[in-house]
Amino acid sequence: MAAQRPSHCVTVLGEQYPTDHMTNISPTIVSKLPLKLHTQPSHPLSTLRALIESHFPTYAHLSSLSPLVTPYQNFDLLSFPADHPGRSVTDSYYVNKDLMLRTHTSAHEVEVFERGETKWLLTADVYRRDEIDGSHYPVFHQTEGARIVSANPAGMKEIEEDNERLAAHLERSNIEIEDVPHLSPINPCQPAHDPKHTELIAKNLKLSLNSLMLHLFAGRVGATAQNPLRVRWIEATFPWTTPSFEVEVFFRGKWLEILGCGVIYQPTLDNANVSDKLGWAFGLGLERIAMVLYSIPDIRLFWSQDPRFLSQFKQGEITTFKPYSKYPACFKDVSFWLPEGQGLHENDFCDLVRDVAGDVVEDVKLMDNFTHPKTNRKSLCYRINYRSMDRSLSNDEANSLNAQVVSCLRDRFGVEIR
Ligand code: PHE
């Protein structure tokens, strides 16, 4: 008998899945899943991954976990509240209600700890619905790093010795650190922890990451030997770490947000069956760092197949990107009335535009948002900037893409074009 195909299904990475009311994964996104730029030799994201890995030579280096996870893995195991906005279909991509694309590499923390790894890095593609501009793309890459030790004198001794070694290294380096206390009333110790242990772990986290920042940024173009590398620590909150921090680096005249991190919340480790351990985790975004290290001006370039982009890079080398000519922009406005009582989320508009025009769209801006005082109907006007990174786009081509956007908008959302 022929295999029965469910009538409503979607194929993702060669497997078929039933769809339901939550399904919002788009063809553009599905096409990105097999690409794994962070493992493509000589790609800037692959070099950056390897550079981070080389700083943690004794850690396990993982980079081939499937992007399909359950909402339980992505959120619940990490103590996200039930009403967290990240769970909504306007923020995340769902295959169906039980399966989604990971929104962060933290989605794998519990399973990696459960496998028995105690020092590890994991690099992967992550997916978030977002607006369209030069620094946002619905797929990007993160590296997660974590270290756990036994919550006993032997574990604490291991951390103390490592702290001495790292502190001595940093003392000899040209780095200026703006710190915050390891613990504070808004960034407290967890009830399950001895504050002395937490202090040691937080110190190990800070020393390890300050030293990673030196490894990534010191000695690069624009960072001179006279100027110290400036790193700033900020108090933060994440549902699966306490205390939590963010790290920023001052590079080429700007403070750059680099990563989030913290002391792992004990229930997360309980979920992984390693209650007798404690430790830290961090997660950093690769594109933002690669954009500044390589001077890559537009996030779409990472996805370019153009040899003028790809042939510029060699595995293991950070070089300054030489832009090829910038092609003219072509702006088109789309104004429409929404059906009565209906709204349209900006991320839904942007995904539709990406499905029609792909990476030929440079940015999308909301120009006008008006509600008719009598009918209460809502009208929106978006300005789409069509510009290819690889070639000159004719006005006819832009018009034809824009006509397809308009017709899709009518079909999908029942809008009336103004
Ligand atoms: N997953 C977080 C993010 O995407 C970063 C993070 C990782 C924070 C690990 C704390 C610990 O922003």
UniProtKB/TrEMBL annotation:
InterPro entries: aa-tRNA-synth_II, aa-tRNA-synth_II/BPL/LPL, Fdx_antiC-bd, Fdx_antiC-bd_sf, Phe-tRNA-synth_IIc_mito, Phenylalanyl-tRNA_Synthase. It is found in: Mitochondrion matrix. Keywords: Aminoacyl-tRNA synthetase, ATP-binding, Ligase, Mitochondrion, Nucleotide-binding, Protein biosynthesis, Transit peptide. One of its GO terms (cellular component) is mitochondrial matrix. Its EC number is 6.1.1.20. Pfam families: FDX-ACB (PF03147), tRNA-synt_2d (PF01409). PROSITE patterns: AA_TRNA_LIGASE_II (PS50862), FDX_ACB (PS51447). SMART domains: FDX-ACB. One of its GO terms (molecular function) is ATP binding. It catalyses: tRNA(Phe) + L-phenylalanine + ATP = L-phenylalanyl-tRNA(Phe) + AMP + diphosphate + H(+). Residues 325-418 form the FDX-ACB domain. Residues 46-323 form the Aminoacyl-transfer RNA synthetases class-II family profile domain. Belongs to the class-II aminoacyl-tRNA synthetase family. Is responsible for the charging of tRNA(Phe) with phenylalanine in mitochondrial translation. This is Phenylalanine--tRNA ligase, mitochondrial. It comes from Suillus luteus UH-Slu-Lm8-n1. The lineage of its organism: Eukaryota, Fungi, Dikarya, Basidiomycota, Agaricomycotina.
